[in-house]
Amino acid sequence: RNAVSRRAYNARGYARGGNMQRIKPLKTSLRDFGGDGLSKTDLTEMLTGRTASLSLNLTREESYINGSASAEDFELMLQLLHLYMTDPNITDAELDRIKERLTISLEKSPQDKRDTAYRLNVEKYGEHPWLEQLTPEGISSLNAAEAKGLYDSFFGNASDYTFYFTGAIPAAQAKELIGKYVGSLPAKARS
After folding, report:
1. Distance, CA of 52 to CA of 64 (rounded, Å)
2. 8 A C-beta contact, residue 158 and residue 188
3. Which of 30, 34, 54, 121 has the fewest CB neighbours in a 10 Å radius?
4. DSSP string covering the chain, please?
5. How many angstroms separate the CA atoms of 74 and 67, rounded?
């Protein structure tokens, strides 16, 4: 098979603290940000005809980045990784579109269903901060600078991640490209 996949794993999920009114909109929108001043739509158009993808994920226990590419597009996948870890396109305009989508989604979900789900979770887990429900006020008060700070806290430090690469690419070529793109990612020790 002529494919390469990668996974970057970080044992730091949102359970490590934080305001759930801030984290939930970010968590549900990770796939909506572009990078380097490009919207997600711009990036999608640029990738047409190429075989490279990347997705960011945030759970209670971990944050991780998955990707795959053809061997020919391995470098492109690494460029996407570098882009998303160094220069996500989190602007007021992008965030306004995301906030509008989240608000509409929240309005479409009947309050009684949200209340029932919340009560069941409280019964199961107690009054845990993870259960804090997203509110229209919480959505509307999020700004791009705050969203970027949250994003960076989960995805902006390569030293938090363990990177795995598998697939059909010569080791020497992979080592050179990984050194170039992963080796130049910002990395700082956490205190």
Report:
1. 17
2. no
3. 121
4. --EEEEEEEES--GGGS--HHHHHHHHHHGGG-EETTB-HHHHHHHTTT--EEEEEEE-SS-EEEEEEEEGGGHHHHHHHHHHHHH-EE--HHHHHHHHHHHHHHHHHS-HHHHHHHHHHHHHHH-S-GGGPPP-HHHHHH--HHHHHHHHHHHHS-GGG-EEEEEESS-HHHHHHHHHHHTTTS------
5. 10
Query: What six digits make up the tokens of 44?
Result: 């999608």
Predicted TM-score (pTM) above 0.85: no
Q: What is the pLDDT of residues 82-98, one digit of tens each?
A: 999 999 988 888 889 88
Query: In this predicted model, what pLDDT tens digit does every residue of 101-154 receive, in sequence order?
Result: 888 888 887 777 767 777 777 777 776 666 677 788 888 888 889 889 888 988
Share of the chain above pLDDT 90, in %: 30
**Residue 83 is encoded by which pair of tokens?**
């882009």
Q: Name the amino acid, one letter, at 188.
A: K
CA dihedral 162, 166, 170, 173 (to 10 degrees): -30
CA distance 72 to 52: 9
